Each structure stands twice: as C-alpha cells, then as structure tokens.
Fold this protein.
Amino acid sequence: MPEKILVVDDDKDMCLLLSRLLSRKGYEVSTHTTGKEAIAWLQSNKPDMALCDFKLDDISGSHLLTEIKSLYREVPVVIITGYSDVKNAVEMMKLGAFDYITKPLLPAEILATIKSALQAPEGSSEWPIGTEEQQNSLKTASSKKERSKAAQSNIGQSREYIMGSSAAFANILHQIDLVAPTNYSVIIYGESGSGKEVIAQQIHKKSKRAAMPFIAIDCGALSKELAGSELFGHEK
C-alpha cells in the first residue's frame, strides 16, 4: 500500500504542485484548501504524515496541528509557510510538529523531509526541543545550508543545455511538468545562450494558456525611459 500524505494549503496551485510531485514518487495524496475540510477528512481517514500551511483562510496552522495530534498523535506533521519566523518555528515544534520549512519549496528538500518524517521514530521531531536561543541557532544554520544548496543547484543547472540526456536535463524537464499547469510566476536562471527562452516556451506549451500567444521580450534592449511604454503601451 502506498503511504498516504495529507496536504493542506489555501493556495490551490501549491496543492496541485505538491500533489503532482508526490504522486509521481508513489505516494497517495489527499489535498484540501481549508482547515475545516481537512479536519472533516481526518475523522474517517488516517494519513501517514501531513503537510500543512501555517496560515490558512479559516484556521491557523497551530490549530490544525493540534487537531491532527489529538486524533493521531503518532502522525508526523510538517508545517510549510511563506513567513520565516524563528518564534513560529519554535512554537510549532513545541506543539509537536516534525519540521518547519519555508517557501519557495524545493522539490528535493520536500522529498527529503517527507522521507525523514516517515522513517522517524514515533513522537520524534526534526529539531530537538530546547531553548529559543538554541532553536534560533539551529534554524539559522539550516537556512544557510539550504541557501547554499540552492545556489549550487542553480549554478549547476545554468550550465546545462536544453538538448541532452543528462540527469540535470531530466530534472529540468521534470520541473517544467510540475510548474506548467499552475499560475505561478517562474524565474529561469542561466548564462547567455543556455536556452532560457526555450525552457520558457516549453512551460508555455504545457500550460493552460498554450493556445494563447507566447511573446518573448529582451528587456536588456529597452531603454529605461521607454520600457514602460514598450511593455504596457503609451497614451499622450
């Protein structure tokens, strides 16, 4: 039986992104956009772990975390949020969260955290509970480590060409499939001539707007004074 993961986020695109990513890795995923909807689902379903947004439209992440732990104490819960705050992280850990990660979410980081949570002994957490100063130090060290990994990843990917059969290229194609159906804005990094525009075209072709025009603009060729008029039109 595939391991069941509960995803709760008021951002529908984030739910879709996580559902596609985790389903491809063999997990069974149940997504919900409100805390109340998730709690109702939990009354008759037990997940192997949960990914919950810190700020939902109807209830707080801490409330949902408490509800999950009251129903299934052994289920690990990972809090995801766009607000990086050490105090919130410490609060979530004290309430029983396994880990606390910030957006933007990196696929490799998410998958590693899920694997760690599913393999962890019952009742454990990624961070040891201690003083706030200790938690601050640990979180800061982790953030620096993740930023370093992300930077190295971007550097490595920027040197890859669009046509190829390498693992890095396969990873790029995988990321295109993940983001194309969503409404997220995407920044493509790469050196001159590395194929950034071709990647953008591939995203457009696989998006819901594939039937609409794809317009490429070289902003570097626009003067500062005329850029606004060129992009948005001019009215005397």
